[in-house]
Structure formats: structure tokens, C-alpha cells
Design a protein that fits this description.
380 residues, mainly beta, 2 helices, disordered N terminus
Length: 380
């Protein structure tokens, strides 16, 4: 850890200190919410509609938390499990005269931690917080973690073709994002910053170290970015309707304290369309595109993020994917999910791409169960 701070990185220090303040100290401003008077409530663990076990009251009103278990099925790291204890704080919506009728609701504040382990002996732990300072119309996200990952990557070599190799990557990522809401219709703009200390090593002798840059194995990444976003989904956990569009541009440069100089552009859009009178069927659609310019470590290269395809399996300077998720709300708390997607690599010099630049596709299905009537807590 001492090596991380041995360099003069004033931008990183300021951003990290700001993130710590937001994570632990930025609560007093929220007490100034312009809100309706609190309504008396009676604590219960049952839903008022179907009398099933419901944790909404415990989470939102009694200051409780939910230890969310998660089954990891990511092919890149193998099967595993994660535990994510989450606290939520629900905002009372401001009663402002100039607030439009269909204004986007203020999302709940989320504070939590996470820990995971997988069969590839990858593991990690971290903390995070996402919250809104209502009087300032300012939303922030801050988090930090330690990750020890064993992953497989692929490199295309002349005459040899594609070669699979393993790498162990130890990293300490710190993240900060601040967004200013513009009006009440879901538009926002802001800045973000990522600081990462990374130590990597090859886990087999398939490829010589000479094929990699020495600094790829021990480096600091200091990345600053700007973003614009539109989000009018009805909730942030399991949306039934609405849209989200996001664009961000990120710069890693030596004057920020980074060991690499590159630009990363990212954009994605989600759409959720309910079908039928009772909205039992929800069609979800996703488009995602990434592009990088410059000198970037092999493990930060854009890779296909599509369910069913291992993370890092296909990498390059650019890619674009489309995906759909069809959800059938069978009962009030049970849903069946069907999903599929297609990817088109757009890179000029591929590290690892589908043969002949063709598209790659994946599909699958799953189920989800809601432990309360507002949010989804368990899915497979």
C-alpha cells in the first residue's frame, strides 16, 4: 500500500478524500429535504396485498438491511457465491410547486458491502454507497474494493493463431461519480474518477513476458471522465417500463498520475416496454458500444459483456452488442426470464475476435423471485 502513495498524485488524493467524505459524512445535507410530513406507520413483515413475507417495511422504514446472497455463474471465473449486505433509505419526494406531474422519482439511497469467492480461487471484498443530496439535486456513487482475480485471456499471434493464457490480477479500485440532475424529467450530467493500483502476473508458461509491456504487470491507473445520462425507469432494480441512455468519455493520462495514456468512450441504452393489459410481460432491450484509443493494458481492453460468454473471451479496440431480455411475471413474486444477444467486433487490430470478424451470439433463460414487492433480491 505504501507504494500506492509514494507518487505525487494530487488529483487522486483529492478525489479519494472527497469519496470518503461522501461515503461517511454527507448525511447532514439530506436532513434538509423539502418533504411532506412523515406518516405514522405500523411495522410489519407481511405484504398488505397478498400477505406474503415482505421485507419492504423492514428495509425502508425500520432501518433494516438485507444480506443479499448471489450465485455466481460467470464462465470466466467459474461457479461461486457472493454475499452483499444492503441498507436502503427511501426519500420522501419533495412537494415543489414547479415539479411536473410525471417527474422522475428520487431513487433510494443504497449503502452496502460485498464479498465473493469462486472456484477459480478468485475473491474480493468492498464497500459502496449510492445516494442523493436532495437540496442540491446531486446524486453520487462512491466505492472501493480489493480484488484477487484468476482469469483467462486470449491473444492472436501470427502463424500460431489464437492462444489462451492465464493471468492473476490483484487490484485496488476506487470509484467516485457525481451527477447533477437537470430538471425533473430524468436528465443529468456529471463527472467520474477511477483510481486503480494493479499487480498482474502470468499463471502459466504459454506466452513469454516479452509479449507484454513491463508496466502492464505493475501500474497505477488514474482515469477522469465526464458523462451525460437520461433515466426515467420506474425503478432501478427490476424496471417494468422506462428508458435509460448513458454516454461517458474517460481519459487516462500521465498528468493525472496514470502509467498509461488512452481514451475510453462508452455508451449504452436500455428500454423496458410492458405488454398486455396487466403488464404480465416486459420486453427489455439493450445496446452497448465501446471504443478505446491509445495505450491500454490487456486486462482493461473492451471485452464482450454478454451473458453466456466468458468475460475477456473476446477483446479489442471496439465492439458493439445488442441484447434482449423477455420477462414473464408469472405470479406476483415469480418471474421467468428469457434472454439472448448478438455481438459485432469492430476492432481494427484484434487481440481476440470471432473468426473472420463474424458476429457472436448467446442466449439462455432463468428465473427470479422477489423477497418484497418493490425490488428483486434473488435470481438465477
Amino acid at each position: 500500500m505504501m507504494q500506492i502513495w509514494s507518487r505525487n498524485i494530487p488529483c487522486a488524493v483529492r478525489c479519494i478524500c472527497c469519496g470518503i467524505w461522501l461515503l461517511f459524512g454527507a448525511f447532514s445535507a439530506q436532513a434538509q429535504d423539502t418533504s411532506a410530513a412523515p406518516v405514522k406507520w405500523k411495522f410489519t413483515l407481511h405484504d398488505s396485498l397478498d400477505n406474503a413475507i415482505d421485507l419492504s417495511d423492514w428495509i425502508l422504514n425500520a432501518g433494516g438491511f438485507v444480506p443479499v446472497p448471489m450465485i455466481i455463474t460467470e464462465p470466466a471465473v467459474g461457479y461461486g457465491g457472493a454475499l452483499i449486505p444492503v441498507f436502503l433509505h427511501k426519500h420522501r419526494q419533495p412537494n415543489l410547486v414547479n415539479r411536473p406531474k410525471h417527474a422522475v422519482a428520487i431513487p433510494p439511497d443504497i449503502t452496502g458491502a460485498m464479498a465473493f469467492y469462486t472456484e477459480s480461487k478468485s475473491w474480493g471484498a468492498g464497500v459502496f454507497r449510492s445516494a442523493t443530496i436532495v437540496p442540491w439535486m446531486l446524486r453520487y456513487m462512491v466505492g472501493g474494493a480489493y480484488l484477487d482475480m484468476n482469469l483467462n485471456y486470449y491473444k492472436t499471434l501470427p502463424r500460431v493463431g489464437e492462444v489462451e493464457y492465464g493471468a492473476n490480477i490483484k487490484s485496488i479500485p476506487l470509484f467516485l461519480r457525481v451527477q447533477k440532475q437537470i430538471g425533473w424529467q430524468g436528465f443529468s450530467a456529471g463527472m467520474q474518477y477511477v483510481f486503480t493500483k494493479t499487480e498482474a502476473s502470468l499463471t502459466n508458461n504459454v506466452l513469454p513476458d516479452s509479449l507484454f509491456k513491463p508496466r502492464e504487470f505493475d501500474n497505477i491507473s488514474s482515469i477522469a471522465g465526464i458523462l451525460v445520462e437520461f433515466d426515467n425507469r420506474d425503478n432501478i432494480f427490476t424496471p417494468n417500463k422506462g428508458y435509460k441512455a448513458h454516454l461517458d468519455a474517460n481519459l487516462s493520462a500521465s498528468f493525472l498520475g496514470s502509467d498509461f495514456d488512452y481514451t475510453h468512450l462508452n455508451g449504452f441504452a436500455y428500454a423496458y416496454v410492458p405488454i398486455g393489459h396487466k403488464e404480465k410481460w416486459v420486453s427489455g432491450f439493450r445496446v452497448d458500444i465501446q471504443q478505446v484509443f491509445g495505450d491500454i493494458p490487456f486486462y482493461f481492453k473492451p471485452s464482450i459483456d454478454l451473458r453466456g460468454i466468458p468475460k475477456g473471451r473476446y477483446q479489442g479496440d471496439a465492439n458493439m452488442l445488442v441484447e434482449t431480455e423477455q420477462r414473464w411475471n408469472v405470479f406476483r413474486r415469480w418471474s421467468a426470464i428469457f434472454f439472448g444477444g448478438r455481438v459485432k467486433p469492430l476492432m481494427i487490430i484484434p487481440i481476440s475476435a470471432p473468426p473472420n470478424g463474424c458476429t457472436t451470439q448467446a442466449q439462455g433463460s432463468g428465473t427470479s423471485w422477489r423477497a418484497n414487492s418493490n425490488y428483486t433480491w434473488a435470481s438465477m
